[in-house]
Design brief:
Blueprint (H helix, E strand, L loop, with lengths): L2 H4 L2 E3 L19 E7 L2 E12 L2 E7 L2 E12 L2 E7 L2 E12 L2 E7 L2 E12 L2 E8 L12 E8 L2 E12 L2 E7 L2 E12 L2 E7 L2 E12 L2 E7 L2 E12 L2 E8 L7 E3 L12 H9 L1 H7 L2 E7 L7 H21 L7 E5 L17 H7 L2 E8 L1
Parallel strand pairs: 21-22
Antiparallel strand pairs: 1-2, 2-19, 3-18, 4-17, 5-16, 6-15, 7-14, 8-13, 9-12, 10-11, 20-23, 21-23
Organism: Winogradskyella litorisediminis
Subcellular location: Cell outer membrane
Protein name: OmpA family protein
């Protein structure tokens, strides 16, 4: 298989981008790969802090103690009680009839006297007098004028005179006394103030004996060491070399699966151990695992199932110590049948089994 050439070369089929640099004067019927010097790597160890130092706090709950306490349940107050007045009976003297005087009347006494009064004054004057036996018809002819004087007229009037006016004489009349009973206040009414004492009772209650607190504790930081691979020297392309053409074509492995299953049988593992595994162990080649299904079942399901089957082979090789970076898996479902047994075509179980296959091909050389 010319495994020496596979150690350092890419397959020509995978390098279409380098078509302009194909080898000069090639031999008909030969295949070539372009050899490269691979990148070289080295491992470095670094220590990093995976966890910082920090403080944890542990809470210690408060503790309590029971204490007795005398509490007021009823406040002190005052009550007022009415005390009625106290009376006593006393004799009270009073003047039932006041003293006075009795008046005796002394009648007035009288005398008699008289006075003369001019009732008409003395008068005089001419008086005309018709003569009796006047012979004239005209009476005026028989008028005589006489100057006549008349004496004053008087009258004597008797009257009573007051000899002594009426008067009184006083005669004392003594008063009259009496008594009556009277209830008088001996002790006035009052309000008596009575103290009502407060009432207390004893209660128990819990008080904080020790307050809650936190106890700090320091958690030390943690460090971890990581080993990582870094690029030590960059590789490069060197020259074209001849390679066995058979390795460029997919190689069908006699790995078959049960219908609808991606599980590797013991026989399938033996095939892998005898075919792919020696190539992977004896060189640094990278391979592509290709898996296919028959046409039965849903197309999308078959596509997923084929990918699972290819993954099963890759996972098995990894379990044998092969680096996953050297392995590629691809599922083709029922898109690349090896016979006529497509959807709706009646085929035997053996014909369908041939389509449930797994292939591998070398895709580059490291």
């Amino acid at each position: 298989m010319k495994q020496k050439l596979l150690l350092v070369c890419f397959l020509a089929s995978a390098l279409f981008t380098y078509a302009q640099d194909l080898p000069s004067n090639p031999t008909p019927g030969k295949c070539y790969v372009k050899c490269i010097t691979k990148d070289t790597f080295k491992e470095v160890t670094e220590t990093f802090q995976s966890s910082p130092e920090y403080t944890t706090l542990t809470v210690q709950p408060a503790t309590f103690k029971t204490v007795e306490e005398r509490v007021l349940v009823k406040e002190a107050s005052k009550r007022y009680e009415y005390v009625p007045a106290v009376y006593e009976t006393v004799e009270v003297s009073y003047q039932k009839r006041e003293a006075t005087s009795k008046l005796n009347v002394v009648p007035a006494t009288f005398g008699t006297s008289s006075n003369t009064y001019e009732t008409y004054p003395k008068t005089s004057g001419w008086e005309y007098k018709i003569l009796e036996d006047c012979p004239s018809v005209n009476k005026d002819d028989c008028v005589a004028a006489c100057f006549v004087e008349y004496p004053a007229q008087s009258r004597t009037v008797n009257f009573t005179t007051l000899a002594a006016d009426a008067s009184t004489t006083s005669e004392p009349v003594p008063g009259r006394d009496a008594t009556y009973t009277k209830r008088v206040v001996k002790t006035p009414a009052s309000m008596r103030e009575i103290e009502i004492p407060a009432e207390y009772k004893t209660i128990t209650r819990q008080v904080v004996d020790t307050p809650a607190r936190t106890v700090p504790s320091t958690v030390a930081s943690k460090s971890e060491t990581i080993t990582r691979t870094v690029l030590d020297k960059k590789g490069g392309i060197s020259s074209w070399e001849e390679v066995d053409c058979e390795l460029l074509d997919p190689t069908v492995l006699p790995i078959f699966y049960e219908l609808g299953s991606a599980r590797l049988t013991p026989a399938s593992r033996t095939v892998i151990d005898e075919t792919i595994l020696p190539i992977m162990n004896d060189s640094n080649v990278s391979v592509e695992i290709r898996s296919h299904t028959d046409s039965r079942g849903n197309d999308a399901f078959n596509q997923s199932l084929s990918q699972q089957r290819a993954n099963s082979v890759v996972n098995y090789l990894v379990s044998k110590g092969i680096s996953r970076s050297r392995l590629t898996s691809r599922g083709f479902g029922e898109t690349r049948l090896t016979n006529r047994c497509s959807n709706g075509v009646e085929c035997t179980e053996a014909q369908h089994r041939r389509n449930r296959r797994t292939e591998f091909r070398v895709i580059n050389s490291n």
